[in-house]
Design goal:
Helix 2 packs across helix 3. The model has no long low-confidence stretch (mean pLDDT 82). The chain is built from six helices and no strands. The chain folds into three domains: 30 residues; 69 residues, Helicase, Ruva Protein, domain 3, CATH 1.10.8.640; 49 residues. The protein has 157 residues and is mainly alpha-helical.
């Protein structure tokens, strides 16, 4: 019976690892060459409109967003730069406030690291608290409590 249970656990572990590996592979797979319009759309979706609140350049029709979209289209038509280089150029021109997704370097990396750190600390604190409660709950009862229970049991009979 035990070997079947162990075999079953290994099967589930293998299944979960396979699913994670396939999802990771599928999410990072490149879909092939993109058209210029696809590149313009992809870049303008990650850039924030400098005059709008919370809108991307892709969505906004403000004059600032239109000028950024035109600049992106001009640079893509030139064919000299990658998407990251174009985003860096726009960021240098307008500042980091134009990025909808913060960079993962420098001070901006705290946005990605801090929630993970807080989650790890919270789980660790809960684990410590549960272990402490378990230890406190498993201690033997005091003599006074034992006498009180015995007295209550005698009175019930």
């Amino acid at each position: 019976m035990k070997s079947k249970s162990v075999h079953n656990k290994w099967s589930w572990l293998l299944l979960v690892l396979s699913a994670v590996a396939l999802l990771a592979f599928g999410s990072t797979r490149d879909s092939g060459p993109r058209t210029q319009a696809d590149r313009i759309d992809a870049i303008t979706k990650v850039l924030a409109c400098p005059t709008c609140s919370g809108e991307s350049v892709y969505v906004s029709r403000a004059s600032g967003a239109e000028s950024i979209r035109a600049e992106v289209a001009r640079q893509i038509a030139g064919g000299q730069q990658s998407d990251d280089e174009i985003i860096a150029y726009i960021e240098a021109r307008f500042g980091s406030r134009v990025l909808l997704v913060p960079r993962s370097t420098g001070l901006d990396s705290l946005i990605w690291v801090l929630p993970v750190f807080v989650l790890i600390c919270a789980v660790g604190t809960l684990g410590f608290a549960f272990r402490r409660w378990k230890v406190v709950g498993s201690d033997s009862i005091s003599v006074e409590d034992a006498q009180l229970v015995e007295r209550a049991l005698r009175e019930d009979r």
